[in-house]
Amino acid sequence: MSEADDLQRRVEEFADRSLRFIQGLPHTQIAQRMAAQFQDASSSVASNYRAARRGRSYREFTAKIGVVSEEADESVF
After folding, report:
1. d(CA 5, CA 53)
2. How far is CA 58 from CA 37, 41, 76, in A?
3. 76 or 18: whose pLDDT is higher?
4. Following CA atoms 57, 63, 67, 72 in sequence, which dihedral angle do they give, to the nearest 10 degrees?
């Protein structure tokens, strides 16, 4: 397995685990708002990494990897 394939597997697993985590949160307004933001960011990591791997040029790959980094950082926050 290549490093790129391994990272793809890991970001997909991160998205799956994030969804399972969100399902366990309380159903308060604040928790659900934060859950929605976390869900968007964590699933975006996987989808944007997939898009980056399909980049048509190095510049496109670099730009999309930047988005992956931003979404991962938002997930951590």
Report:
1. 10
2. 30, 24, 27
3. 18
4. 80
Return d(Cα 70, Cα 52) in angstroms, integer. 13
Cα Rg of the chain, angstroms: 14
CA 49 to chain centre: 8
Quote the tokens at residue 4.
């790129």
Question: Which of 67, 53, 43 has the alpha carbon at shortest distance from 7?
Answer: 53
| Interval 1-26: pLDDT, tens | 899 899 999 999 999 999 999 999 99
Two structure tokens written together for 40: 């968007």
